[in-house]
Amino acid sequence: MILEPERLLRVLELANRARASGCGRSLREALRAAGARSAAGEAEEVLDAVLDRPSRRLVVYGTLAPGEPNEWVLAGLEGEWRECRVRGGVSIRRGLRYFRWDPEAGEVRCLLFVSGRLPGMWPRLDAFEGPGYRRILVPAELEGRVVAANIYEGRE
């Protein structure tokens, strides 16, 4: 399902709120905003299908990228890397990069890792990133189109 940019932003905001609170109601609201008729099955799986499988996409802006200190975390996964842009800002704290999503901010050049094996890796990646980061969905611009993708946002 292709969503116009404004609707995609609204769906992602609702989905991120639901993930943060653990509330399934917000995921159902996100599904309705996307135009879904049914919330059959697990809400996260349905949302993944509605948004064209963002569970298979990870935006990388720091140490997980090829050539960076923690590239080994993703090195064993089959997939491809593409350049992309997301809106927000990157700061450095304690020697680490922290991304903060802001749909009104300037573009940040990043890499998008796409792999069919990512869905099975999220628990491990979440544990690796630790409590200083939370995984959210953002619109990523690449090759003239916008896709929903996961990114690790720094917690304040």
TrEMBL record:
One Pfam family, short name: GGACT
Residues of the Gamma-glutamylcyclotransferase AIG2-like domain: 59-153
Origin superkingdom: Bacteria
Protein name as it appears in the record: Gamma-glutamylcyclotransferase AIG2-like domain-containing protein
